[in-house]
Amino acid sequence: MKTWSLWLLGTVMVTLIVILITTPRTGLEAAHVQRIEKGLLTAIVIKDRPLPMTLTDRMVYYDVPAVSIAVINNGQLAWAKAYGVREAGGATPVTTETRFQAASISKPVTAMAALALVQQGRLSLDDDVNLSLKSWRVPDNDFTKDHKVTLRRLLNHSAGLNRDEVGSYAAGEALPTLIQALDGQTPAKSAPLRVEATPGSQWRYSGGGYSVIQQLMIDMTGKPFPELLQQLVLRRLGMNDSGFSQPLRNDWEGLAASGHDAQGQPLKGRWHTFPEMAAAGLWTTPSDLARFAIEVQQSFQGKSNRILSTDMTKLMLTKELGAYGLGLWLGGAANVTSFSHAGFNEGFTCILTASLESSQGAVVMTNGDRGSGLFNEILRAIAQEYGWPDYRPLEKTVANIDPALYRSYAGEYNAAGVSPTAISTEAGELYLSAAPLGPQRVKLYPTTEDHFFMLEHTIEVRFVRDNQGNVSELQVQADSQTITAKKAN
After folding, report:
1. Of the CATH numbers 1.20.1180.10, 1.10.390.10, 2.40.128.50, 3.10.290.10, which one belongs to the domain with range 398-487?
2. Confidence of residue 26 (pLDDT cuts 50, 70, 90)
3. Do the Cβ atoms of 138 and 153 come closer than 8 Å?
4. Is residue 399 classed as helix, strand or coil in its secondary structure?
5. Which spans in 184-261 are helix H?
6. What confidence score (pLDDT) does residue 124 get?
7. C-beta of residue 238 within 8 angstroms of C-beta of residue 170
8. For residue 5, how far is the Cα from the chain centroid?
9. How far is the C-alpha of 342 from the C-alpha of 339, rounded, in Å?
10. What is the Cα–Cα distance from 363 to 182, expressed in whole angstroms?
């Protein structure tokens, strides 16, 4: 759905408890932590007008019951800290050992395991995967006549496959087998996985493509996927609080955070299940994901090769199509300088980002649908504290506008396929309300009489007048997309 709701989600938090369980750290690191907790930064900041924000206040603002953070500095896990409660309305605090769903951050961990099998000679990066698949095959069609689906293209999301997402199953719903999910057969909730573009011709995100990798790895090793990932990656990196078991292991239920929906309610059964584990099935902690990121950094630098050789890690971190490597987003222009991946499952949002140049990084995991706004503000605070070159807020200047002008903007605006947008004024300020932004109305700041911006989002708003000088339209621009809404009479 092409609306600005794609960027934003909502939930409600009832209770907030803060608990600290950390890795050993110095007094200097403790000071870093305190400044970060008090210095969260919005996407936009106003020039010469500092707006200090605390982590706990922003958790309330974004209605996120719990957040867990791990920070990498100088190639080491510098500190980890957890805040909040396992479930809204409850009093059980999260700790740094509380498991969260990693969602799509499952993909780079899967990619590392697949490349380990390539390194062992058990998988090929560039052969047709149908030569190795036994239990299921990618259906051939006109797109695959001359160009085949390969592991490299699957890892890079350039195999031409459909299905950006994988099936998500609430408690009590029947679970498909992996093959049923691949073919879209009942009880699978996803469409059949098919090639819809020439493999290798374009970048096209496909969570379903990672389900093919999952089946390929199972067929070539004869082992269940969770066991295989433990053997190839998790155990070797000391990721002892991580696992791909779907449904979640019974003995981990008391260690897991509950996911929360857009209305702030815990998900039925506390979380959803993902049979397509390679794409979205990892349960883990920020500290364990930090261990993964540190291994990638150190392998790239030739300092550690517990899973992959330095050459194989460099291959993983080489841009193919879409500024994406083999399982990771890659930053940098001429040379790759960083890697990252975000994750969004129902009730869980998270982010992993790390630098190859400075050996710094961070992982932030939340159990609320609006956690992306929060984790970005946390990353900006970490970036400022540790001197990262990126994740810095944009700075803008507020124009001096007569508030009386705002009354002409007030009203409801409508566009096809988009929830209504309401503009209101109060005490000389202008506000926008829209369901995708959550329950709170958002304050607008002027750059000119008809152009405005928000602090929390890189979204710009412009009011358009007709030939008679009456406000007739509202234009909302997010990234490169502009949505025009007509003012209701």
Report:
1. 2.40.128.50
2. low
3. no
4. coil
5. 207-221, 225-229
6. 98
7. no
8. 15
9. 11
10. 31
